[in-house]
Amino acid sequence: EVQLVESGGGLVQAGGSLRLSCAASGFTFDDYTIAWFRQAPGKEREGVSCMAGSDGSTYYEDSVKGRFTISSDNAKNTVYLQMSSLKPEDTAVYYCAVDVTAGVCRVVYSHYTFIGMDYWGKGTLVNVTS
C-alpha cells in the first residue's frame, strides 16, 4: 500500500524555523517528482515547492523563495521541506505529494500549483504566531 506521512509541523513564532518530513512507504521516491502544497483556512490549496524526478530541478512559490528548501533522502525514503524565517501567512496545513508518472514538475503558474500528483499525505499543521 502506498502511503505518505507528513510530520514536523507545530507552533512556531514568526522568524522561526521548522523542518517538515514526508516519509513514504509502499514505493521508493527515487526518480519520482515530489511536491509540497499548503492550504490555509478559507483558502485554496497552493503549490509550495516541487522537485523534479528526472533532474532534481526545483520550483518554489514566490512568497517562499529564499526561505524554504525542498530536499530528499532516498536512503530514508523521505522528503523534507526546510522552512526558515517563517511568517504568520505561512500558517497552513502542509501536504506532500508524489507524481509517479512524470519526471518533471507540471507547474500551473496562473494558480501556482503542481498538477498530476498521484499520491497524497494527510497533512501536517504549521501555525506561525506573530
Describe the structure.
There is one protein chain. This protein is an all-beta fold. It is 0% helix and 52% strand. The strands form 3 sheets. Strands 2, 4, 5, 6, 9, 12 and 13 form a 7-stranded mixed sheet that branches. It has a 4-stranded antiparallel sheet with strand order 1-3-8-7, with no helix packed on it. A hairpin with a 4-residue loop joins strand 10 (106-108) and strand 11. The protein starts with a strand and ends with a strand.
Q: Output mean pLDDT.
A: 94
Amount of helix: under 10%
SSE pattern, N- to C-terminal:
EEEEEEEEEEEEE
Coarse shape = globular
Total of helices: 0
Kindly report how far apart the N and C termini lie: 40 Å
SS content category = mainly beta
Strand portion:
over 45%
| Poorly predicted regions | none
How many individual β-strands? 13
Largest sheet: 7 strands, mixed
